[in-house]
Amino acid sequence: MSEIGHTREVDAPAQRILVTGGAGFIGSAVVRRLVRQGRQVLTYDKLTYAGNLASLAEVHNLPGHRFVQADICDGQAFRAALDAFRPDLVMHLAAESHVDRSIDGPGEFIRTNVLGTYTLLEEALRYWRALDAPERGRFRFHHISTDEVYGTLGDEGLFREDTPYQPNSPYSASKASSDHLVRAWFHTYGLPVVMSNCSNNYGPYHFPEKLIPLTILNALEGKPLPVYGRGENVRDWLYVDDHAAALELIATRGRLGESYNVGGNNERRNIDVVRTICAIMDRVVPDAKIGPREKLITFVTDRPGHDARYAIDATKLKDELGWVPTHDFESGIEATVRWYLDNAAWWEPLKARYDRQRIGLAP
Length: 363
Ligand code: NAD
Ligand code: TDX
Description:
Helices cover 40% and strands 15% of the residues. It is of the alpha/beta class. It has a domain at 16-199 and 240-265 and 311-328: NAD(P)-binding Rossmann-like Domain (Rossmann fold, 3-Layer(aba) Sandwich). The strands form 4 sheets. Strands 3-2-1-4-5-6-11 form a 7-stranded parallel sheet, with helices on both faces. The longest helix has 24 residues, at 106-129. The structure holds nicotinamide-adenine-dinucleotide (NAD) and thymidine-5'-diphospho-beta-D-xylose.
């Protein structure tokens, strides 16, 4: 078994990093960060509707960055990528990520999130076993997951790493399954893994089907702002670059076989998030024809199985690895609104990639 329970000192930080899902929202923030630091990065991404090479424009053609368009369920393609690139670290972010889509079509979530992760684990194990001893000692597989695996909180309490798994949506159930597989490959086969579970991210390059970018773009056009139920559900929002910094720490310095919760201590009710965005937009891009954007808020049928509250206790990550988030919600949300206003060239082409009507209402 691998060295469970103690930190392996990393003499030379990982230099060759394969990032699955690197063309997505969080993956692209990770790839941009690592390439800027001078690491060698291979982005491995199928480019589904959610994948976007424009999110990697800053680094795509730099010598430190390579890209392979391939499916994580394709074991042969992943094997070829491992054998050609020879990473000392795999960061696995590729997933189907949108809860509403998982309600309408859970099959793709099982295929990608469960079978895809299984495929990567099998190939990573084969690759790791064939490495020579120093390389084998350096190699790590970092699985990136969500706090939604823990289910829902009431008014009190926080998710800790030892909170029991109680996923409630097809998305969170598929992520929970993948977490369990990763854990099992560590305990049974000794594959050197680390895991992390993060709360809701927000920031630039967020696919516009998600609450925050959807609200910004609808508010810009004077369209209704759909709020599920009464808007009282609470999410714990973390700026995406703070998550990317946490992932780098966990991947390179986290204890093998351990999982780390990541969250910014920024709990907000959905209705308050939407109102905050309205206020920023009224100030930054006032529009006399639209008027005060709060008038656009429309309460709609609740999401089936809608988790009431998520909130993270990130003490372990802070104490063990010294992580501190650098963005508070007020500055982060203003920066995010301004980024969308300045980057229509990024989001305009995406409008054709998703249904701008309500989805995820189970029959
Ligand atoms: P995203 O939907 O923006 O990006 C997912 C990426 O994975 C896309 O580039 C897509 O093309 C790629 N992909 C999907 N299926 C693939 C497949 N079969 N093979 C190869 N590539 C494939 O997702 P995100 O928000 O960046 O989330 C990244 C990871 O972080 C996911 O594992 C998600 O569960 C987790 N996570 C997300 C959040 C959040 O708030 N967004 C919070 C916690 C954890
Ligand atoms: O139009 C909307 N109106 C609304 O009220 C949408 C799209 C969402 N909501 C609500 C549902 C949630 O309570 O806003 C909250 C946030 O919704 P999403 O943006 O869909 O995110 P969520 O379901 O919380 O999941 C996100 O965070 C955890 C990511 O999509 C997941 O991949 C991640 O694991």
